[in-house]
Design brief:
Layout (H helix, E strand, L loop, with lengths): L16 E5 L4 E5 L1 H15 L8 E6 L2 E2 L6 E4 L5
Parallel strand pairs: 3-4
Antiparallel strand pairs: 1-2, 3-5
């Protein structure tokens, strides 16, 4: 919940998402369910009425595969 706005982030069954930091490049590897999950998360953040700065933390053992780098999805309406 941000500024009184509740957003629900849902996960597809069997979603697998791994994030790797290769120095100058970030790789997000996911199965079909994982890609649908990430797409849904981004669409949730893009919904009308979602406040600037709303974000979601994805980390190892919190949505991401073991050994993954942390990932933050954040809405930023500044130009």
């Amino acid at each position: 919940m941000t500024d009184g706005t509740t957003r629900i982030f849902t996960w597809e069954a069997g979603a697998r998402i791994e994030v790797r930091n290769l120095g100058g490049e970030i790789v997000i590897e996911a199965n079909v369910a994982g890609l649908k999950t990430l797409a849904g998360h981004l669409l949730t953040l893009a919904r009308d009425g979602t406040p600037d700065g709303s974000h979601l933390h994805l980390e190892e053992n919190n949505g991401l595969e073991e050994g993954s780098a942390s990932l933050v999805l954040e809405r930023c309406d500044d130009e």
